[in-house]
């Protein structure tokens, strides 16, 4: 068994008997579970494991926790493809539902055992991870800093930088540590995540590019950038094997009670699925959310088309009217729709994605609710 699989299997085994551990290090990715989040999680956990002096101590554990359930792996086709290609057993990865963080924090509290958490690709804990808050000691993220979410009381290190991929930040951290040799499989997996996040393009002079080429030299697979991007993008966009609900959940963010699924098709096309409307309704019920904002993009030959579907689950007409007005001001034009509580907006500006739409919607939402 190769080094990476050995590490993953050992981590998995120890996660089954975490109560026996004296020291646990949790590396936690974001709930959307996109490629760079997943690869950063595994890479950073492997890094911590390899650079710890007490490797032979069987009461120290390093858990790379993918922040979704095992079923969630099957709908993330591009992840699955890369793991299978790298000969990594999907059943030996650690998924969010396999660990009970409440119990863990309770069990470790008031003892001298150590429980530490490292966040990658996000810096806000969602509600059911909030219990880990005081254990967080390190954060790597490439999203804009959430000004509503404060970490100031905590003694921890945060690296938030505007790069295309979170793997870029983690790789940089790994390469800086001279005692650590980046594993060749991990190098390949992180390389692929960066290629995906930079859309298969070269970005000379950026940290993304620098890390991409450093990882390339460590990797054993050596597929061309363009070729990798084409494969991953096709896998990501292919969703004819998924139900509308699966399409909504495979890249989903849930923040401040609002759902933000990202889709690789336009909202107008998504709504053509027979159960599309019911799927959004079901999702809102599952999360007890009163607003879902579908961020939808489709590539056409020379441009990226963006539209946004907004589902007002439990909100009155007045809220809707105000929302439409504010959203209009941000260059989102309302299209005629056939539903009372679901509206589609076409984006009239040049370029936008979830990273920008999410804070915009939160601001509008809080603005209206507060008025
Ligand atoms: Mn990311």
Write up what this structure looks like.
There is one protein chain. The protein is an alpha/beta fold. The chain folds into two domains: 3-231, inorganic pyrophosphatase (n-terminal core); 244-370, DHHA2 domain (Diaminopimelate Epimerase, Chain A, domain 1). The chain has helices spanning 3-16, 35-51, 70-74, 77-85, 101-108, 166-176, 184-197, 207-218, 225-237, 244-249, 267-270, 276-287, 317-329, 354-370, and strands at 23-28, 60-66, 94-95, 114-120, 136-141, 157-160, 252-255, 258-263, 291-299, 304-312, 332-334, 342-347. A hairpin with a 4-residue loop joins β9 and β10 (304-312). Manganese (II) ion binds at residues 34, 36-37, 121, 166. Residues 34, 36-37, 121, 166 line the site of manganese (II) ion.
Topology:
Layout: H1 3-16, E1 23-28, H2 35-51, E2 60-66, H3 70-74, H4 77-85, E3 94-95, H5 101-108, E4 114-120, E5 136-141, E6 157-160, H6 166-176, H7 184-197, H8 207-218, H9 225-237, H10 244-249, E7 252-255, E8 258-263, H11 267-270, H12 276-287, E9 291-299, E10 304-312, H13 317-329, E11 332-334, E12 342-347, H14 354-370
Parallel strand pairs: 1-2, 1-4, 2-3, 4-5, 5-6, 8-9
Antiparallel strand pairs: 7-8, 9-10, 10-12, 11-12
Helix pairs in contact: 2-6, 2-7, 4-9, 6-7, 6-8, 7-8, 13-14
Bound molecules: manganese (II) ion (MN).
Residues 34, 36-37, 121, 166 line the site of manganese (II) ion.
What key attributes describe this structure?
371 residues; alpha/beta; Diaminopimelate Epimerase, Chain A, domain 1; six-stranded mixed sheet; 12 strands; binds manganese (II) ion
């Amino acid at each position: 068994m190769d080094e990476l699989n050995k590490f993953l299997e050992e981590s998995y085994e120890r996660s089954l008997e975490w109560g026996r551990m004296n020291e646990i290090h949790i590396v936690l990715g974001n709930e959307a579970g996109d490629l760079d989040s997943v690869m950063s999680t595994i890479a950073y956990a492997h890094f911590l494991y390899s650079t710890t002096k007490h490797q032979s101590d069987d009461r120290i554990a390093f858990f790379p926790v993918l922040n979704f359930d095992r079923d969630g792996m099957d709908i993330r086709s591009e992840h699955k493809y890369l793991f299978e290609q790298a000969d990594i057993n999907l059943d030996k990865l650690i998924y969010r539902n396999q660990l009970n963080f409440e119990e863990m924090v309770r069990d470790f509290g008031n003892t001298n055992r150590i429980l530490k958490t490292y966040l990658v690709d996000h810096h806000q804990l969602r509600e059911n991870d909030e219990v880990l808050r005081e254990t967080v000691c390190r954060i790597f993220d490439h999203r804009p800093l959430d000004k509503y979410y404060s970490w100031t009381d905590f003694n921890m290190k945060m690296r938030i930088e505007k790069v295309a991929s979170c793997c870029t930040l983690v790789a940089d951290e790994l390469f800086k540590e001279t005692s650590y040799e980046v594993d060749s499989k991990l190098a390949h997996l992180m390389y692929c995540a960066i290629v995906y996040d930079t859309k298969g393009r070269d970005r000379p002079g950026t940290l993304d590019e620098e890390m991409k080429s450093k990882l390339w030299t460590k990797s054993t697979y050596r597929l061309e950038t363009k070729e990798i991007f084409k494969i991953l993008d096709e896998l990501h966009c292919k969703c004819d094997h998924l139900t509308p609900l699966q399409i909504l959940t495979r890249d989903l963010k849930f923040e401040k009670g609002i759902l933000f699924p990202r889709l690789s098709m336009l909202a107008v096309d998504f709504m053509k699925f027979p159960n599309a409307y019911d799927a959004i309704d079901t999702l809102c019920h599952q999360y007890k959310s009163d607003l879902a904002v579908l961020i939808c993009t489709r590539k056409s030959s020379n441009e990226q088309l963006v539209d946004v579907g907004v589902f007002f689950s439990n909100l009155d007409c007045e809220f809707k009217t105000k929302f439409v007005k504010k959203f209009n001001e941000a260059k989102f034009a309302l299209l005629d729709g056939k539903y009372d509580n679901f509206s589609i907006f076409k984006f009239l500006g040049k370029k936008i994605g979830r990273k920008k739409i999410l804070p915009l919607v939160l601001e509008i939402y809080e603005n209206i609710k507060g008025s």
